[in-house]
Design brief:
Length: 296
């Protein structure tokens, strides 16, 4: 039975959203074995790099338009910015805050994109955008305050939140800068090449600063790193790009709004993180704000 393209696009976005939403949960599970952010990120990339290399080699066999001068360096730089710098800050932040709060903070990146575009293009921020920003940031602040109340180590919560906010800022910057490059070179080619550059950057970073010794971990960490690499990185990166190409970024953003809620419930189910009405209200505010901001 052949499904309509729109149905396939929706399925791609929903499955990709679930995989991305589970990322924080897998990372938190790995941290229980004593591993820290840098070696875990390095293991993730070590297990992911063969898949991206295979896609890159396959793309070489296709009749693709050669990259224009400078595009290769742009892809490398953008890959390092998002999947190296942003991911490292995200992994570091997850050492100190709940997976639910991390996902909510990351989810506000579309509002940061709007602010960056307004600043660079000198566009006036509309009333609708102001309301969207107020809703999204109020929701994030609500969940942040709730997390502070649930822990005695408020300084760690503040540190982790700051690191994830920085991660979100860098990812929003990546989205703004990549806006012209992705359509020009193609989503699959961009994803494969950018991820390869990020993988190399992360692995060199880990080996330079911490050496090979920190990559020796208990067997469960390797299993979780494989899950993180394949199910929470490779699969969703291509599924989301495919879904966006079929149904558009606007509908994809609306469907992807269930991501923070999935993370909250997975955190409660698997990590036994507390889930309260305040957190649900905060998630609703963030989702409402981002949906309003991305709706035409």
């Amino acid at each position: 039975m052949k499904y309509p393209p729109a149905i396939i696009g929706i399925i791609c976005i929903l499955v990709g959203t679930f995989c991305f939403a589970a990322k924080g949960i897998v990372i938190k599970l790995a941290y229980q074995y004593g591993i820290t952010a840098t070696p875990l990120l390095a293991l993730r990339m070590l297990f992911a790099i063969p898949f991206y290399a295979a896609v890159a080699l396959w793309l070489q066999t296709q009749q693709l338009t050669p990259l224009a001068k400078g595009d290769g360096w742009k892809i490398i730089g953008l890959g390092l910015l998002s999947y190296y710098v942003s991911s490292l800050l995200d992994f570091m932040g997850l050492q100190y805050i709940s997976a639910g709060l991390e996902r909510l903070i990351l989810y506000i990146y579309p509002t940061l994109v709007l602010l960056m575009l307004a600043f660079w293009k000198k566009e006036k921020i509309t009333r609708k955008t102001k309301i969207a920003l107020a809703l999204a940031y109020a929701g994030m602040l609500l969940v942040f305050i709730q997390d502070l109340r649930l822990t005695s180590e408020w300084n760690y919560t503040l540190l982790g939140t700051s690191l994830v906010i920085l991660s979100t800022i860098f990812f929003a910057l990546f989205v703004v800068l990549a806006g012209d490059t992705i359509p020009k070179v193609g989503a699959s080619r961009f994803t494969a090449y950018a991820m390869l550059s990020a993988c190399v950057g992360v692995i060199l970073h880990s080996l330079t600063l911490e050496g090979v010794a920190n990559l020796k971990q208990p067997q469960p960490v390797y299993v979780l790193a494989i899950v993180l690499a394949f199910f929470c990185t490779v699969i969703p990166s291509f599924l989301m790009n495919k879904g966006i190409s079929v149904i558009g970024s606007g509908r994809a953003a609306i469907l992807g709004s269930i991501g923070p809620v999935i993370t909250l419930f997975l955190g409660a189910l698997i990590l036994h993180e507390p889930i309260t009405l305040v957190q649900l209200l905060g998630a609703l505010l963030v989702i409402s704000g981002v949906t309003l901001a991305t709706r035409k």
